[in-house]
Design goal:
About 40% of the residues lie in helices and about 15% in strands. It is of the alpha/beta class. The strands form four sheets. Strands 2-8-7-6-5-3-4 form a seven-stranded mixed β-sheet, with helices on both faces. Helix 4 runs parallel beside helix 11 and helix 5 crosses helix 10.
Length: about 400
């Protein structure tokens, strides 16, 4: 047999999906496990959105659509960008695809030649580094620090840029840290990007899940020059509890949008017609349910952060967006627990699942080996029980 693709062979499986699969298998076996791994809201898709999908089926809206998405959906996206972010885009600058993850890949495809460098602040969403490698790019990882709120500085960015740098991926608010950049911080980063003429893939999928009355600022809104170099990634999955509907989009300058549209016309054909109708309703109907979910997430975050910081041996900082907390386990590194010396977050995660019956995501896949990610996209009761089990697990108990 001939050799498989070197690019494909170099791609690692998603650690978040692996943990979630292990959790679901244990659950199916009847074990009393609690999962904090998957990055999806525990809320159901709102009824009015589900009904729009059902109506699409009954109305036979089940055929191919334009490869970049229906015109009515792209117009609705432009309206949301205008109302939510103060940004002006034309429908021709929007490309709808099969979820935000696909959109990141397609954005990288449009920008990156083999050997081009892509700057990636760490901790990063696990798929970013693999997506960069899948298009032949070279990830340039910049480690951020907890004491700096896990944020990249303009100076760190400038020092990482070389003649081979093509773009940067910026996730704001961040998965896995939940941290969010201020307007001033984005202005400083944008200044470097414009001066050095690099693109920014700005993944803003969590932009409506922001807490403490903080202001979300889209990277493209910083300046006309920044907007020209920005590829916004967004979609309906997180804010509208529509993960399985698989609708995301890219907003970019006309030339980039055209290239992405051409690309998806061959590799994806078009997004699901039924899902596009549901997404149209999500964007054009009342946004009240978004705010209801946001407030629920904020209450859960408050409880998780306060409680976690009361448990000896672990700690966390207070995130301002998304629905994740990064738990610091540095005090546990080198200690023996349940007969195993903990070397990194992988060891902790495996032991916690085996003996504590709780699934969290090790930070090793995020470029943060001394941290584990908890999702608070689950019920308050699950969060309380999970933290109860953490306390017992750290005391050496088996659950």
């Amino acid at each position: 047999m001939k050799e498989l693709s070197k690019l494909a062979l170099g791609v690692e499986p998603s650690t978040t999906m692996a943990i979630d699969s292990m959790f679901k298998q244990m659950k199916a076996e009847g074990l009393d496990v609690i999962g904090f791994g998957a990055g999806e809201p525990d809320f159901a898709t709102p009824d009015h959105i589900k009904l729009a999908g059902i109506a699409a089926i009954h109305n036979n809206d089940t055929k191919y659509t334009p490869s970049a998405g229906t015109l009515e959906l792209r117009k609705a996206i432009c309206q949301r960008l205008r109302e939510d972010c103060g940004l002006e885009y034309e429908p021709s600058q929007i490309v709808v695809s099969n979820g935000a993850k696909s959109c990141v890949y397609e954005a990288l495809r449009a920008l990156v030649n083999p050997g081009d460098e892509v700057i990636l602040p760490a901790p990063y969403w696990v798929s970013y580094i693999e997506l960069i490698k899948m298009v032949g790019g070279v990830p340039v990882v910049i480690e951020t620090r907890e004491q700096d709120q896990f944020k990249l500085t303009a100076q760190e960015l400038r020092e990482a840029i070389t003649p081979k740098t093509k773009c940067m991926i910026l996730n704001n608010p961040s998965n896995p840290t939940g941290m969010m950049y201020s307007r001033k911080e984005l202005e400083e980063i944008a200044k470097v990007c414009v001066e050095e003429d690099i693109y920014v893939i700005s993944d803003e999928i969590y932009f409506q899940l922001v807490y403490d009355e903080e202001e979300f600022v889209s990277f493209a809104s910083i300046s006309p020059e920044a907007k020209e170099r920005t590829l916004i990634i967004n979609g309906v999955s997180k804010s509208y509890a529509m993960t399985g509907w698989r609708i995301g989009y890219v907003a970019a300058n006309p030339q980039v949008a055209k290239v992405i549209s051409n690309y998806v016309s061959h590799c994806a054909g078009s997004p699901c017609a039924v899902s596009q109708k549901a997404a149209l309703t999500a964007y054009t109907a009342s946004q009240e349910m978004v705010e209801t979910m946001r407030r629920a997430f904020e209450r859960r975050r408050n409880y998780m952060v306060e409680r976690m910081n009361q448990i000896e041996g672990v700690s966390c900082i207070r995130p301002h967006g998304a629905f994740y907390v990064m738990m610091n386990i540095e005090k546990l590194i080198g200690k023996e627990m349940h007969g195993t010396v903990i070397k990194d977050a992988d060891d902790f995660g495996n032991l916690f699942l085996k003996y504590g019956k709780v699934a969290v995501v090790p930070g090793t896949g995020f470029g943060a080996p001394n941290f584990v990610r908890w999702s608070y996209a689950t019920s308050r009761a699950n969060i309380q029980e999970g933290l109860d089990r953490l306390e017992r697990f750290l005391k050496g108990e088996v659950i």
